[in-house]
Amino acid sequence: MKSPAGNKKDTRGSVYCLICTHTVEADIVPTGRKLMVRSGQRCPRCASALDAAYVLGNSPGRRG
Ligand SMILES: [Zn+2]
After folding, report:
1. Residue 2 above 80 pLDDT?
2. How confident is the model at residue 5 (pLDDT cuts 50, 70, 90)?
3. Of 2, 7, 25, 62, which has the maximum CB count within 10 A?
4. 47 C-alpha to ligand 1 centroid (Å)
């Protein structure tokens, strides 16, 4: 039996858009140890594909 606790799918997280160089929120998916942006999303700022965006973390927090 699978435990419902391990049923993670996609999560909301902060990603860095390389096109407009802004941090935006997007759906991220855990792939092994790394987090990746779920494909098919667009940046809310510049409407570019977030496929190549850099995931900063799974919690929208401060940085720097
Ligand atoms: Zn952008």
Report:
1. no
2. low
3. 25
4. 6
Q: Which among 62, 61, 57, 7 has a CA at the least distance from the CA of 28?
A: 57
Average per-residue pLDDT for the chain: 82
Greater model confidence, 16 or 62: 16
**C-alpha 29 – ligand 1 centre gap (Å):** 19
Distance in Å, CA 59 to ligand 1 centroid = 19
φ/ψ bin of 29: left (φ > 0), alpha (ψ from -120 to 50), beta (otherwise): beta
The domain ranges of the chain are 8-57
